[in-house]
UniProtKB/TrEMBL annotation:
Keywords (A to Z) from UniProt: NAD, Oxidoreductase, Pyruvate
EC number(s) given by UniProt: 1.1.1.79, 1.1.1.81
Keyword NAD recorded: yes
Oxidoreductase keyword on record: yes
InterPro entries per UniProt: D-isomer_DH_NAD-bd, NAD(P)-bd_dom_sf
Gene3D superfamilies linked to this entry: NAD(P)-binding Rossmann-like Domain (3.40.50.720)
Pfam families assigned: 2-Hacid_dh_C (PF02826)
Domain annotation D-isomer specific 2-hydroxyacid dehydrogenase NAD-binding: ranges: 108-282
GO terms for MF: glyoxylate reductase (NADPH) activity; hydroxypyruvate reductase [NAD(P)H] activity; NAD binding
Membrane spanning stretches: none
Protein name, as recorded: Glyoxylate/hydroxypyruvate reductase A
C-alpha cells in the first residue's frame, strides 16, 4: 500500500486550536504543522495538499509538488499574488458555521444602527432613562454589496428582520423579493441605500473602492437621516481617511468595521473613538478549526474518488 503524503498546514491564527484539532484530523495521512517548531524543519517536497492562511513567503519553493491549495478562510487575497504561486486549484473555505457567523454580525450591526445603540450606550453610562424612537426596519433599505455565499445569506436574514434589502454584484443575481443590480448599475443601487453592507472579496477592482465619492452617492433622505457604512469584506477595499472625514462631516451617520487597511488597526487611529462607529477585530466570521479541517478532508476525499473539487476560485477574477 502506498503511503499518502501528509497535509501541509501553515495557518497564522489560533495556533492552540489548530494544534489541538490536528491531533485527530487527517488520520489517514498525517500532517505537517509549520506552527510546530519540530515540524518546521521537515522536508516539504512530497507534500500535495496545503491548507494555508497567510503562509510563509518561501512556502512554494519549499513545497514544489503541490496539487491543491486550500484557503483557511473564505477569502484568498492572502494567497493570490504571492511569489511562486503554482498554477493549481485554490479552494476557499465555505461552511455553514462561517456563513452563519457572518450573518449574525451583519444583522447585529444593522440593528445597532437602526435602534441607536451607540446613543443608548452613552445614556446608560450616565444612568439616564431616555427613550429613543427608532424607525421600523421596513423603513430602512440595506444595500448589500457582494451577493455570493455570505452576501446571499445575510440578505435572507436581514429580510427576516423586516429590512427592505437590495443587492449589488458583478453579475446580476435573481433573489426572490430583492431588487438586484449589476456592476454597471452602481449609482442607482447606492442612491437607494441607507445602510451599505460590504461583503466583497479583495481584488484589483475592489481595492480602495469604498471612498468619499462612493459615500456621497448613498441616499441622504432615508429614515435614518444619514447613511451608514458597514464593512466585513476586506479592509483594503476601504479608504479609512475618507470614512473618518465622512463621519466627521456627516456624509455618513456612522459605521461598523470588522476589517481594516492594516490589521491590527493602529492604536492611534481616530476610528477607535468616533461617535457611532463600531469596531470589531476581524472576527465577524472566524474559521472554526473543526469545520475547516473537516472541509479539507471532504475535498481530499472527493479528489480520491475522482469527483470534482468544490469552491475552486476563478484565478482570472481573483476570488
Ligand atoms: P463569494 O461567494 O465569492 O462572493 C463574492 C461576491 O462579490 C459575488 O457576488 C461577486 O459577484 C461579488 N464581486 C466580486 N467582485 C466584484 C466586483 N468587482 N464588483 C461587484 N461585485 C463583485 O465570497 P463570499 O464567500 O461571500 O465572501 C466574500 C468575502 O468576505 C471574502 O472574499 C472575504 O474577503 C470576506 N470575509 C470576511 C470575513 C470576516 O471575518 N470579516 C470572513 C469571511 C469572509 P458575482 O456573484 O457576480 O461573482
Ligand atoms: C476571513 O476573513 C475569511 O476570509 O474567511
Amino acid at each position: 500500500m502506498s503511503v499518502r503524503p501528509p497535509v501541509l498546514v501553515d495557518i497564522k491564527f489560533n495556533p492552540e486550536g489548530v494544534a489541538r484539532v490536528l491531533k485527530t484530523a487527517f488520520a489517514d495521512r498525517g500532517s505537517i504543522n509549520l506552527a510546530d517548531p519540530v515540524d518546521r524543519a521537515r522536508d516539504l517536497r512530497a507534500v500535495e495538499y496545503a491548507l494555508l492562511w497567510k503562509p510563509d513567503a518561501d512556502l512554494f519553493s519549499r513545497a514544489p509538488n503541490l496539487k491543491v491549495i486550500f484557503s483557511g478562510g473564505a477569502g484568498v487575497d492572502h494567497i493570490i499574488g504571492m511569489a511562486g504561486l503554482p498554477d493549481i486549484p485554490i479552494v476557499r473555505f465555505v461552511d455553514r458555521s462561517l456563513t452563519t457567523r457572518m450573518s449574525e454580525w451583519v444583522v447585529m450591526q444593522c440593528l445597532m444602527h437602526l435602534r441607536g445603540q451607540y446613543a443608548h450606550d452613552i445614556k446608560q453610562r450616565r444612568r439616564e432613562w431616555a427613550k429613543l424612537i427608532a424607525p421600523e426596519a421596513a423603513e430602512v433599505t440595506v444595500g448589500v454589496m457582494g451577493l455570493g455565499i455570505l452576501g446571499q445569506d445575510a440578505v435572507a436574514k436581514l429580510k427576516v428582520m423586516g429590512f427592505n434589502v437590495i443587492g449589488w454584484s458583478r453579475t446580476r443575481k435573481a433573489i426572490d423579493g430583492v431588487e438586484t443590480f449589476d456592476a454597471g448599475e452602481l449609482d442607482r443601487f447606492l442612491a437607494k441605500t441607507d445602510i451599505l453592507v460590504g461583503l466583497l472579496p479583495l481584488t484589483p477592482e475592489t481595492t480602495g473602492f469604498y471612498d468619499s465619492g462612493l459615500f456621497k452617492k448613498l441616499r441622504r433622505d432615508g429614515a435614518l437621516g444619514q447613511p451608514v457604512f458597514i464593512n466585513a469584506g476586506r479592509g483594503k477595499s476601504q479608504i479609512e481617511a475618507d470614512i473618518v472625514s465622512a463621519v466627521r462631516e456627516g456624509t455618513l451617520g456612522g459605521a461598523s468595521l470588522d476589517v481594516f487597511e492594516v490589521e491590527p488597526l493602529a492604536t492611534d487611529s481616530p476610528l477607535w473613538e468616533m461617535e457611532n462607529v463600531f469596531i470589531t477585530p476581524h472576527d465577524a466570521a472566524v474559521s472554526e478549526e473543526n469545520a475547516l479541517f473537516r472541509h479539507v478532508e471532504m475535498q481530499i476525499a472527493r479528489i480520491e474518488r475522482g469527483e470534482p473539487l468544490q469552491f475552486v476560485i476563478d484565478r482570472a477574477a481573483g476570488y
